[in-house]
Give the backbone structure.
Amino acid sequence: MTTVPHEIRALTTPADYQACVALQEEIWGNGFQAAPSAILHASAQVGGIAAGAFSDDGRLAGFVFGLTGVDVDGAIVHWSHVLGVRPELRNAGLGRRLKEFQRCELARRNISRMYWTYDPLIAKNAHFNLNVLGARVVRFVPDMYGQTGSPLHHGLPTDRCVVVTDTSRAPHEHSVTLEAADRDAPVLSVAPRADDIVMTKRGQIELAPRVRLEIPTDFAQLLADAPTKAVAWHTAVREDFLWAVGNGYTVSALRRDPGTSRSFYILEMQR
């Protein structure tokens, strides 16, 4: 882990905004539709947040950017559009510090609701968002951003979970370990094990109060090693999420089985 100190502050100058655009292109590739300097600047004039993590020499190491607007119920809310950290610093805690800066600033402004999205197949990001930041999944959107051109998205449809958090509450970490009550829950999986109770999506088993939806523990590595299998997982997880949402399930947690290194969303039936 790299432990270089960084200052977290708002982006305020043309140089700051240009550095943010350059970092977006560095992380996601030139084909990615980066938030341009003009939008980063203009959004800050009407409640948006563009902030960065700067090293002692002034180099931008990471950033977060979001827009403030009105939700369907009339509440003023924030949509955190994008967060990025240089690859060599992704285990330095900068993502968490940037998100905390954003949360505190919104709480100071009395904006209590913050939304953002993440790829449901990336277990590391799911853990960060659900277990570390304490966000709650509110919906699943197939191919939310379309084809982005970013090599990080591998040409796959950009399926996303939309999550929300209450900015007035500081996050506290939730357990990542599979609990005893989860082990008997039926499983939705491309690769079920012999001792799994397999969810068939038919008959009475669909009324199970709790279901485990498996995702690869390292989807990026699976893409590199077995792209055909990775595409099969992508398709299956989309189908499973849509089925679960359509049948009244919500995501309550992301947990890992330490004995098998398998990762599961825990889905619970809404009563």
User: Anything to note?
Assistant: The radius of gyration is 19 Å. The chain has two domains: 7-166, 180-269. The first helix runs from residue 14 to 28.
